Amino acid sequence: xxxxxxxxxxxxxxxxxxxxxxxxxAARTLGGYGYVSxxxxxxxxxxxxxxxxRANALARSMSTGVSHTLGVIVADIGNPFxxxxxxxxxxxxxxxxxxxxxxxxxxxxEEEVAAVNVxxxxxxDGVIVASAALDREQSAHLMAAIDRGIPVVxxxxxxxxxxxxxxxxxxxxxxxxxxEVLIAAGHRRIGFVWGPxxxxxxxxxxxxxxxxxxxxxxDGERLRGYLDALDDAHxxxxxxxxxxxxxTEERVxxxxxxxxxxxxxxxxxxxxxxxxxxxSLRALRQAGLSYPEDVALIGFDxxxxxxxxxxxxxxxxxxxxxxxxxxxxxxxxxxxxxxxARERHTLRARLVQRSSVAPPRP
Amino acid sequence: xxxxxxxxxxxxxxxxxxxxxxxxxAARTLGGYGYVSxxxxxxxxxxxxxxxxRANALARSMSTGVSHTLGVIVADIGNPFxxxxxxxxxxxxxxxxxxxxxxxxxxxxEEEVAAVNVxxxxxxDGVIVASAALDREQSAHLMAAIDRGIPVVxxxxxxxxxxxxxxxxxxxxxxxxxxEVLIAAGHRRIGFVWGPxxxxxxxxxxxxxxxxxxxxxxDGERLRGYLDALDDAHxxxxxxxxxxxxxTEERVxxxxxxxxxxxxxxxxxxxxxxxxxxxSLRALRQAGLSYPEDVALIGFDxxxxxxxxxxxxxxxxxxxxxxxxxxxxxxxxxxxxxxxARERHTLRARLVQRSSVAPPRP
Lengths: 362, 362
Fold this sequence. Notes:
The structure is a homodimer.
Chain A: H1 12-19, H2 23-31, H3 38-51, H4 57-64, E1 69-74, H5 80-95, E2 99-104, H6 109-121, E3 126-129, H7 140-147, E4 152-155, E5 166-169, H8 171-184, E6 190-193, H9 205-213, H10 217-232, E7 242-243, H11 249-261, E8 268-272, H12 273-286, E9 296-300, H13 304-308, E10 314-317, H14 320-335, E11 344-347, E12 350-352
Parallel strand pairs in A: 1-2, 1-3, 3-4, 4-5, 5-11, 6-7, 6-8, 8-9, 9-10
Antiparallel strand pairs in A: 10-12
Helix pairs in contact in A: 1-2, 1-3, 2-3, 5-14, 8-10, 9-10, 11-12
InterPro entries (chains A, B): HTH_LacI, Lambda_DNA-bd_dom_sf, Peripla_BP/Lac1_sug-bd_dom, Peripla_BP_I
Protein name (chains A, B): LacI family transcriptional regulator
Organism (chains A, B): Actinomadura luzonensis
């Protein structure tokens, strides 16, 4: 929070006293960060106008930008996606003289809460987080950071209920485009290695969409993209073709194996993340099937390996470096004194067409 | 460093005065951390014995173990090897109530120096580092941390000149075993995608070994393993079969392509890291060659992708999780009051034999 000393006009403390609110509430209102109820906000703004208070952007930036360190909280440091994203954050932050420290939550919300506390304790200037929080209630730790004057930028995953800057990709469009490519090749039985940890497999489309709403934003968007493409082509939804549950390679092998053993089996599989693709490839081999002749394949998250497979794999490539770089730029701009825009910055993923899609066998 | 207050016996300052050395030197000697010359060490120990000084392990652990945070500095957070290692550190540290913050140096020594300063500033209790330092002179930042009472454990890379705990794998044995497997299959022209950033390609075996001594310990050990296997089989060393220079995928494609175009071309390639293998696979494809019939392949660093390649690849699997876990245990034990053993903890890598090695064509 800004220090009151050395300002020519009235201080935040004087505005707070005039408004009859706490100093923290006045600081949040006048600093443009954190939650303040509409009623208190109105009282603070009225008091500020009456006393002629002018925000001191320099004081604000100096009071926050003291450690020149950004904290980044990722869901899984072992996922190459996040590694690439971190490189983007790091390159941008280092170019502006900021260090970056990273914590990994391994997809556990309680670890994320602990990580935010560590970053507050370590006095970082701002936080970039790929949050596991699903709603406002689960985001109290993020709000707590903001209340302490530490701006927060979401990356990879938006949290629908939160009014924060978020840098994401167009997951829905990317998933729809991949499924459309499969449909255009003639496929109608298209498996989807989706994989949020849903306790019981949804039996209907309605239940599936409801399950998506209770899981990560990213997963929900990808399911919607899959459904969009089916709907546009008037292909009926079959819940047996969607894998839910923890997306370990072992489970993918079992689940894709199950889809390949159905009487009306899948002729194409769209899968997300590395485990989804390596598991699908194992399942094909176990079933004695080849791609692209027997089963067409598209994966989500390109890698050097996908390009050297024989045949090479058609993959969705996320702009991982730019995701991180953009999140860092948004955060650094706020630390530099800009007002948080609190908007969603959406980057486009790109479908890299290689040789894993062919028409289904007649 | 331990606080002197509240101790019944003589203080470190009194021992230092008796020995005629600075307090920091006495603290390093008695605390069992950091470098002290043999002569000064002997003087401090003699003074301590004369005055009846007894180390106060509790005071030492309390003075250091205050933030319950470990700092980990990795060379490249984008390398799956380090991601697995970090998971090992994190699992072990979290089980003992410690948080883990990570910084990536992208193989730049100046970034590593900055990272150590950040960790000191953030008051971590101890540091685990995969250091880019090659000698004592380049390790001043690590010594500075130790001088402030922050123990340092090296991981993945030993620094030969430093007397510190180091948790590493047996790189030399692992490399030798891989090359022995290729020799046993009948190969004598064995390429090695080695890759430390050497300005000019060494022209002789002597120059190659000298270059290794000026580069990362890991790289030096792997070269020695390659040479060991050749020597045992009386295969003459040919510098044209070793790739040096930055190990980007593009350069690997070029260099392996060059080895495949030699009149007496390579019939096998042993390559390190993901870029080494994916680059080698591209080079084979560009040359119209297949593995294992035309060229045998072994890689260093197993992955889920290597197992689903067709044919699946024979790879050296490093115990990445255990590397990190062991480094964390060594560090946490020191923070708990144990004397640093200052030893090298060597874990074994494992050769996973799959189907990328066949005899050379007759």
